[in-house]
Design a protein that fits this description.
The chain is α/β, with parallel strands linked by helices. The chain has helices at residues 18-27, 53-66, 114-124, 127-144, 171-187, 209-217, 238-247, and strands at residues 3-4, 32-38, 72-80, 92-96, 99-101, 107-109, 149-150, 190-194, 222-225, 252-257, 260-265. The chain starts with a strand and ends with a strand. Bound molecules: zinc ion (ZN) (2 copies).
Length: 266
């Protein structure tokens, strides 16, 4: 039975309540579901407000009881790397890079509005400079903070689905993909296979098939996630992602069962 650990709700930029997401998990036949609201970050208006974090955790505690016997529920967050959340009260956390620093006080979103990406390019001198800074931010977050799950490892390519920003087959970008795989392998984190990329023009999950092959070679554990912002996406693309992983030689993917991450046969 699948497990879905990357989900959002009205506490951040999702479209439904935590309870509606839990119900969607039951209806999809999941045996576990984790809530991973965007942890508060002062520069991120789509994230949870700091004053709501206590209510978020309390509501998850209530739902754990309400849904006991139907589905295992877990309290997590999706951290932004530049502003990690205190993990003491969490069952797990996802560590993601959505923003990079481009100077002392300047922070740029690299996976949202194209004009923010353009501003980052201006601040860092080139697209290559932005990608380099992104990779270094990922490396540092994974090695210093060690989240349980490394979130959408190559989200830096999100705005490049049409190839208009850079050539994803160029030597320098291939080196960036290798650096991301290497950072994940060194960290010991589980890497998510985030199916949201399948629901866009990108037509492949995050990270790319090429990075997934490198992760396979390095024996890095993976977990399939949906990055669901709506109930209908709670397990979207899971079969396709599992088929891709099997084709690349993965035999198992991780799941959270009874509070522990365990490998399960694909
Ligand atoms: Zn994210
Ligand atoms: Zn997310």
């Amino acid at each position: 039975m699948p497990c879905s650990l990357h989900t959002h709700s009205l506490f951040c930029d999702g479209a439904c309540s935590l309870e509606e997401m839990a119900r969607a998990g039951v209806e999809a036949g999941l045996s576990s579901l984790g809530f991973s609201g965007h942890a508060p970050a002062p520069y991120d208006h789509a994230a949870m407000r700091p004053q709501d974090a206590g209510r978020y955790l309390a509501e998850i505690a209530r739902l754990k009881e309400r849904f006991a016997g139907q589905i295992e529920l877990y309290a997590g967050v999706e951290n932004d790397a530049l502003h990690p959340f205190d993990r003491a009260q969490l069952d797990y956390c996802i560590g993601s890079v959505h923003y990079i620093r481009g100077g002392a006080d300047a922070i740029y979103c690299i996976e949202g509005p194209p004009d923010a990406f353009t501003a980052a390019v201006r601040a860092l001198g080139s697209v290559q400079g932005v990608v380099r800074c992104y990779c270094e931010t990922v490396r540092r977050h994974l090695s210093d903070f060690r989240p349980d799950i490394a979130g959408h490892l190559d989200i830096i390519a999100r705005l490049n689905a049409d190839g208009s920003l850079f050539d994803a087959r160029s030597g320098w970008y291939r080196q960036a993909e290798e650096a991301l795989a290497e950072a994940a392998a060194q960290s010991g984190c589980i890497v998510e296979v985030n199916t949201s990329g399948l629901r866009t023009a990108r037509r492949e999950p995050y990270p790319s098939e090429r990075i997934l092959s490198l992760l396979r070679q390095a024996d890095v554990p993976v977990v399939i996630t949906a990055d669901a912002h709506r109930p209908c996406d709670v397990a979207a693309g899971f079969d396709e992602a599992a088929a891709l992983l099997r084709r690349l030689g993965f035999r198992s993917a991780m799941a959270l069962r009874r509070g522990r991450f365990v490998p399960e046969t694909l």
